[in-house]
Amino acid sequence: MSTPTWHSFVHTPLGPLRVTTDALAIVEIAYDAPLADPGSAVPAAACALLDAARMQLDDYFAGRRTGFDLPLAPSGTPFQRSVWDALCTVPYGETASYARIARQVGSPAAVRAVGAANGRNPIAIVIPCHRIIGSNGTLTGYAGGLHRKRALLALEAPAPFGQQAA
Description:
The chain is 33% helix and 14% strand.
């Protein structure tokens, strides 16, 4: 028997995101995801998590938030979870290569496996897979589309000197 989940949509400049919770943690944030059967009434804990995710994503897209404070429970293999944990160490406004993440998780030859795990990240934006680029600095695949990856990196880019917020 599977754990019940509840969903909400967050409208962003890059399109709607579906946020899914099991009432204990966020289990998915996805672009272009169809809404699954909502099931029964939404418990208060799920409402609180969905509201927190919506507010934090709104703040992120408005440039008021550089990190997230949400309980997360992505479903994946131990290797995938180790990659997703490593992604969370890449600071806002910075990028890292797939090779760096492979070294960080103790599998320096597993660059392609890191890429595959990155592509299966179920919690977009909050687990910042968009910050991972090719070793030569090129943008490579992003489940949400390269146009969204470009936009997220631009959103996080430091303001040019003289244009910092007051």
